[in-house]
Amino acid sequence: SHDSLPERTVIQLDSSPRFVVLFNPLEQERLSVVSVLVNSPQVHVLSEEGQPLSVQISAHWSSATDMVPDVYQVSIPIRLPALGLGVLQLQQGLDGPYTLPSSVRIYPNGLKPSISRHTVFPVRIMDSSTSDFAISNHYMQVWFSGRTGLLKSIRRVDEEQEQQVDMRFLIYGTRMSKDKSGAYLFLPDGKAKPYVPKKPPVLRVTEGPFFSEVVAYYEHFHQVVRLYNLPGVEGLSLDMSFLVDIRDYVNKELALRIHTDIDSQATFFTDLNGFQVQPRRYLKKLPLQANFYPMPVMAYIQDTQKRLTLHTAQALGVSSLSDGQLEVILDRRLMQDDNRGLGQGLKDNKITCNRFRLLLERRTMGSEVQDDHSTSYPSLLSHLTSMYLNTPLLALPVATRQLPGPALRSFHPLASTLPCDFHLVNLRTLSAEDNMPSADAALILHRKGFDCGLEAKNLGFNCTTSQGKVSLGSLFYHLDVGFLQPTSLTLLYPLASPSNSTDIYLDPMEIATFRLRLG
């Protein structure tokens, strides 16, 4: 239905190749893992040129212990050009050296589930114990509780000391007095209480060459924490998703709290609609609800050595009620109207998926934290991590019955990627006065401001910075810029006469609009 979560398409393989077109919405080249579902574990994946690609084969699960029969997940690391299209060929064939299966461990935690066994993916049933376990890649080792399956700590490979990152779930109630929480008001009945499940969670750990993940099945949510084993942006942060279902709650709100040993000194940082970041202070004299702020894109806490950033793919409420903590409200179910105009409570809850990226960064030696400034800035890595989260790769399976025509080819619209700190807000054809497309186009660019005090060595970026300078004349592949004219943001007023020069400059935090003609 219109309000249910999307379902992924299963690609039916046979002897003839099936094609998948991949689109990169980013203005920078990216290396990412793309996952598709197929009906056979015996699959060969070829590039556009016919070269075999290494893939990770995993089971597709319908519950903590049940595999979906005849459905398998194929994960392929692929490098795509900026704003470009790539083509993959998939066909059925015998297993080869490029098909790498995942290993699966299940911690039943005292339960005796019926595990569906499979010859392709041997499943190991582990004795449930309280001992912690870890997954790792080239950059970090991530530890989880063997009892709860929740995150406990992160240790970077170049450091001996672990960073505490203790994850917990909490429940807020609402007041017993006349005014209660509703769609607009958050009026809790005091501090949050720990979430106590009726039965212990079943944990599933999947490990493979390109990603490892830990899945914890609780009654009201399923947690997936994935660590990519790739160089660059994908491998430097934790990919987290929470499938939340609180439809049986009455006047309760589910929150996620991350507790660290970062000395944040009652200060945390939230963004304003993704454009700038402001410091927020926890004030004890204010009621608890007055210390929550909107988090459209990210929130972070920091001290003189570390910064922990929580990137989000959906706007949520965030706070830091104690030093070293970040707290996010995941979902709310409230039974009454709060007399603010809606006329009803929040009782139409659906199963929702909340997606995050957790990024731990280290400050460079000699860089100071400017606590007295009214604004703060994410690092360049943090900006790119947010873009990776909010603009994922799109995998488009091609219909089995292709119309006769030219063969599918990759597409490279840009001759070179934009600098790391530039974002292409829009590039569109302008309409003429008769409502027909004109020969001119509108180009809107945003240059992001970033904090240079966080470590940026050997991060594997696929782009560089250029001190705010961009040459639009050499940006587009096989297209010349006929003329370029800076205009107001809304394109209503020219700011200068058209020029043959295609070199532009933007200050940090600025948005600029140009009228240009490509040919």
TrEMBL record:
GO biological process: mannose metabolic process; N-glycan processing
Highest taxon of source: Eukaryota
Glycosyl hydrolase family 38 C-terminal domain location: 135-340
GO MF term set: alpha-mannosidase activity; carbohydrate binding
UniProt xrefs under SUPFAM superfamilies: Galactose mutarotase-like
GO cellular component, one term: Golgi membrane
Protein name (Swiss-Prot/TrEMBL): Glycosyl hydrolase family 38 C-terminal domain-containing protein
